[in-house]
TrEMBL record:
Domain of life the protein comes from: Bacteria
EC numbers for this chain: 2.6.1.11
Keywords: Amino-acid biosynthesis, Aminotransferase, Arginine biosynthesis, Cytoplasm, Pyridoxal phosphate, Transferase
Native source species: Rhizomicrobium palustre
Annotated protein name in UniProt: Acetylornithine aminotransferase
Catalytic activity: N(2)-acetyl-L-ornithine + 2-oxoglutarate = N-acetyl-L-glutamate 5-semialdehyde + L-glutamate
GO molecular function ontology, one term from the record: identical protein binding
Note, other: May also have succinyldiaminopimelate aminotransferase activity, thus carrying out the corresponding step in lysine biosynthesis.
Length: 394
């Protein structure tokens, strides 16, 4: 019989019923250390009291009205987001991919109202991930995600990341924008250099293109800055965000400069649920928490500690781990053993939750609120899991 739940996920058996900070509790009461954080979503851990209060307070007042009316929560959050970023404006969505879709629509519309309707193509990169809609699988370019879903949405040109000459060569008379994750998450935690990202900014400026940074995964504090672009001394024109901004409540946003957004007039875009009062109450509280003076310095400090411990782990287990990658708490371990097997052993034998990525990498995406004791616990569990592979090899 076909499963009642569409079987598009290879789910593990375990189901969690409760969470507390960086820990999850399964149906059988067993405790797990969560270094997945809902794939970079639960930045404040589970059942964070401030987020619970923000949600329950709003839940008692009003859930939904639609964007036919003013939504005060959207006004407050957009004001705050534009104060603390490069952006002049933002639009709220329910997910990362919807924020990305708007970014691409906005880029095309910008060129259209600037007198360049012929410019509609977007340059994107191998190893990218932007979600699972028809346009997003075209932008991500991963053949595995495209197979059987053709024809591929037109207008996304995929090239290898890291080579500025390749980008130059790819720009044509129909190019509208360049789309990149400052750190590729899903693709294997690949960090792009400041020099390269600045090179993209310059190419956009010189050729009348918009620069889109997808910060759905790397944004909202994960690298130790509010947004990853801040490390590089440049700003994008458009920036989709999501994941951690809701701390676990589904919400995303597309941020943009006034210039980039100038084509998005009344009637050009819409959403039923996007920016609903529940989402806005949680996201506003989440943003205020990241902006507290001690929060980002804590992320930097604890990330340095974790990276240092991972360096030692590598030295201790040279036949299991190959390399540490990433920035802040968006970290990857390039593996010498199959990443999926390691993730399974860590979960089953050590009760440590990890998530795989492309290029045989495991991602470490802990909540941003972890302390040194959690880092030590995780590294001990990683080391114990590595020993399982070492003894199997003998
Ligand atoms: C997760 C992710 C998306 C898609 O977000 P959804 O909420 O799953 O639609 C887009 N871009 C990046 C970089 C992501 O990591």
């Amino acid at each position: 019989m076909f499963p009642s739940l569409l079987p598009t996920y290879n789910r593990t058996e375990v189901a969690f019923v409760r969470g507390e900070g960086p820990y999850l509790f399964a149906e059988d009461g067993q405790r797990y250390l969560d270094f997945t954080a809902g794939i970079a979503v639960n930045a404040f851990g589970h059942a964070n009291p401030r987020l619970v209060a923000a949600l329950t307070e709003q839940a008692g007042k009003l859930w939904h009205t639609s964007n036919l009316f003013r939504v005060p929560g959207q006004e407050a959050l957009s004001k705050r987001l534009t104060e603390v970023t490069f952006a002049d404006t933002c639009f709220f969505t329910n997910s990362g991919v919807e924020a990305c879709e708007l970014a691409w629509k906005m880029a095309r519309r910008y060129q259209f109202v600037s007198g360049h309707p012929e410019k509609f193509r977007i340059i994107c990169f191998e190893g990218a991930f932007h979600g699972r809609t028809m346009a997003a699988i075209a932008a991500g370019g991963n053949p595995k995600y495209l197979e059987g879903f053709g024809p591929k949405v037109e207008g996304f040109d995929t090239i290898p990341p890291g080579d500025i000459e390749a980008v130059k060569a790819a720009i044509g008379p129909e190019t509208a924008a360049i789309l990149i994750e400052p750190i590729q998450g899903e693709g294997g935690v690949r960090v792009l250099t400041s020099e390269y990202l600045k090179g993209l900014r310059k190419l956009c400026d010189d050729n009348g293109l918009l620069l889109i940074f997808d910060e759905v995964q790397c944004g909202v504090g994960r690298t130790g800055k509010l947004f990853a672009y801040e490390w590089h001394g440049i700003t994008p024109d458009i920036m989709p965000i999501a994941k951690a901004i809701g701390g676990g409540f589904p919400v995303g946003a597309c941020l943009a400069t006034a210039e980039a957004a100038k084509g998005m007039t009344a009637g050009t875009h819409g959403t039923t649920y996007g920016g609903n009062p529940l989402a806005m109450a949680v996201a506003k509280e989440a943003l205020e928490m990241v902006l507290e003076p001690d929060f980002l310095p804590h992320v930097v400090k604890i990330a340095n500690y974790l990276q240092q411990q991972l360096g030692q782990l590598l030295a201790d287990h040279p036949t299991v781990f190959e390399e540490v990658r990433g920035q802040g708490l968006l970290l990857g371990l390039k593996m010498k053993v199959p990443n999926t097997e390691f993730v399974a052993v860590a979960r089953k034998e050590q009760h440590l939750l990890l998530v795989g990525a492309g290029d045989n990498v495991i991602r470490l995406l802990p909540p941003l609120i972890i302390e040194e004791a959690h880092v030590r616990e995780a590294v001990e569990k990683l080391s114990a899991a590595a020993k399982t592979f070492e003894s199997n090899a003998k």
